[in-house]
Amino acid sequence: MPDELDMTEIIAWLRESDPARLGLLWRRADDTRRARVGDEVHLRGLLEISNHCARECGYCGIRASNRGLPRYRMTADEIVAGARRIAGYGYGSVVMQAGEDPGLRREWVAGVIRRVRAETPLAVTLSLGERPDADYAAWRQAGADRYLLRFETSDPALFARIHPPLGTRPFDRVDALRRMRAMGYEIGSGIMVGLPGQTYESLAEDLELFRALDLDMIGLGPYLPHPDTPLGGGSLPVAPPGTQVPNDELMTCKCLALARLLCPAANIPSTTALSALGAASRTHGLSRGANVVMPNVTPERYRRLYEIYPAKATVDESADAFHARVGEILRALGRIPARGPGGRQQRGA
Ligand code: SAH
């Protein structure tokens, strides 16, 4: 059963600053993680397959109007080669992520998924933004197992400010996730922590929505300002003093720990955005609720162009170099690199 935390308790934990009390939260999250998903850490190889984007998300460095940015789209052969490399490392799944790129045609993507499924043992996770249902269905049929689509914030007014008018509403993403689950996908969603204007109450609602959706995967990281974006340039006011959520490591770890308590069986990565806050942050994530790491396997010449936020932690470290030390990192924490695709453990167990 999920932890019986209510809204008042969630908000109290988000506002907690006493290190001894926080130690209890970390312990509770780590105990729940161990009891429900074990000591294995699933490694998902990330391929950032295109940085073309039709959207104008106010926080994101690859937004359409960021014209200074050279655009790329990986070829099918490059993606399949990346997937083979991921399989060669022994990781269990590939995550294909991109901007919302209409140039990624339905049939073309389906063909790539079929090839990856035929040529590797990997599970396939997609993170290609909002698409017509026919695309999700075709990709599921081609062999995709999971879809990641963060709702970013459950606060409709804040969502409207960060996703300027392209006819989207926050619950479009939530509705799409529900339909994808009905198609047989495992579904993942998540948020950014510390968006300008995000309050403790709205963050607690986000966490409550994780529980209501019974998410299979939860991705969350700190909001990291990108100077070439409206939000990074300070276009949005922060919430009044005492109510604005900070975008720091501590707050992100509190959210990770609470996500583990609210969705005990979910697969939860210690995200790249969290690692961007400091060398110890990834390990903090893993010892405060996370059970997944997503090594970036995007070819380096593309990786630096997939700049959703500045100085992504993994930009300068090759996939080989990270692979060479990830086992060590996990073993130092008493954890074990997992084998196999690493789908969700039994629901409701
Ligand atoms: N186009 C896809 C993938 C977006 S990138 C989609 O829309 O779902 C994946 C995630 O990176 C986003 O969902 C967002 O939560 C996060 N992200 C984007 N810009 C960011 C920033 N400046 N700081 C922190 N996280 C960011």
Concise account of the structure shown:
By secondary structure, this protein is of the alpha/beta class.
Walk me through this protein's architecture:
With 349 residues, the chain is α/β, with parallel strands linked by helices. The chain has one domain (7-337): Aldolase class I (TIM Barrel). It is built from 13 helices and 8 strands. Strands 1, 2, 3, 4, 5, 6, 7 and 8 form an 8-stranded parallel β-sheet that branches. α2 (19-37) crosses α9 (249-262) and α8 packs parallel to α9 (249-262). The radius of gyration is 19 Å and the shape is globular. The protein binds S-adenosyl-L-homocysteine. S-adenosyl-L-homocysteine binds at residues 59-60, 97, 99-100, 127, 129, 149-150, 152, 192, 221, 223-224, 226, 273, 308-309.
